[in-house]
Amino acid sequence: MKPTQELQKEIRALLKQKNALMLAHNYQRDEVQETADICGDSLGLSQAAAQSDADMIVFCGVHFMAESASILCPDKTVILPRLDAGCPMADMITVEDLRKEKEKRPGVPVAAYVNTTAEVKALSDICCTSANAVKVVNSVKSDGVYMIPDRNLSMYVARTAKKKMEWWDGFCPTHEKLKSAEVLKAKEKYPHAVFACHPECRPEVIDIADHVCSTSGMYKFAKETKAKTIIVGTEMGILYRLKKENPGKKFILASKSLICPNMKLITLEDVLEALQKTDRVVKVPEEIRIPAKKALDRMLEVPRD
Ligand code: 13P
Ligand code: SF4
User: Fold this and answer.
1) pLDDT (tens digit, 9 = 90+) per residue, 171-222?
2) What's the predicted TM-score (pTM) here?
């Protein structure tokens, strides 16, 4: 095995040679984040891909994220260094499942979390992320909304959204592992700490959170809070940048089980090999890309704060 620095040097040289941009999701391994041109959340990375003039995008994340990049930049070659890096939650609802649910609710718009396959997005009316879900649901011109695939995000949105909501019973196996008892134990050990968690967590965990936010929201919160200790309720990969950007603060992972095995699949060796071979391409076919893009575009039209 080559030393990390050597791998990083070879990757950076190949990226330059191939006019490629390396993107890493906030949950990727530390050394992958360290090597990437840009780190960020799933949608932010796809938007960065679309804005760049690179010919090739090396997307270090999971399959639906590389698909989103392909949807937003069809002229670029999108590479996912491990094609088997999927998102179990995104795979919990299929096109057939969604067709059946839509038949049961004629005229009710479907809001799809970005953690869905391109085919499922193509059948949906609007997309949302964990950062804009409430705004997106409220923006829909209908009394009711059917939200997919995450029951926890849906229940979180239903707390404040002004819509009659129903949802698919999917969940993130990683965030689902976090129990309120673990958070309470951490709070007891660090009584002055604040607890911030992702809306993919169980409702009982959200009930005891000081702040609920997307991965990008977590960086903002960490910077702005006056608290010196933050208990983190999301995937452990987020700690890399949280610690780097806030050297004066302490970050405590709420549970050792907050590891997404799929997010940890990609190694620097995979990135190098994928760049050398230019294989592992993710390409969404036009007949799916165009309707899926419509759902993403509708989300992007919703004004931000
Ligand atoms: P973001 O949309 O914040 O990147 O999160 C994606 C995800 O998979 C959360 O578990
Ligand atoms: Fe999917 Fe959960 Fe992993 Fe995010 S953390 S990629 S939602 S399985």
Assistant:
1) 999 999 999 999 999 999 999 999 999 999 999 999 999 999 999 999 999 9
2) 0.96
Question: pLDDT under 50 in the chain at which residues?
Answer: none
Q: At what angle are helices 42-51 and 63-72 packed, to 10 degrees?
A: 30
Cα–ligand 1 centroid distance for 199 (angstroms): 10
Q: In this predicted structure, what is the pLDDT of residue 42? A: 84
Do the domains 178-253 and 4-85+263-284 match in fold? yes
User: What residue ranges do the domains of the chain occupy?
Assistant: 4-85+263-284, 90-171+288-300, 178-253
Atom of ligand 1 nearest to the CA of 25: 4
Angstrom distances, CA of residue 197 to CA of 17, 234, 236, 242, 264: 40, 6, 12, 14, 20
Atom of ligand 2 nearest to the CA of 27: 5
Q: Does domain 178-253 have CATH number 3.40.50.10800?
A: yes
Under CATH, to which class is 90-171+288-300 assigned? alpha beta
Best CA proximity match to 219, nearest among 198, 238, 194, 200: 238
Backbone dihedral angles phi then psi of residue 57, each to the nearest 5 degrees: -120, 120
Question: From ligand 2's centre to the CA of 173, what distance in Å?
Answer: 7
* 116 touches ligand 1 (CB under 6 Å): no
**The pLDDT value given to residue 206:** 98
Counting ligand 2 atoms within 8 A of each CB, the residue from 45, 60, 260 with the most, and so the one to mutate, is 260
CATH class of segment(s) 4-85+263-284: alpha beta
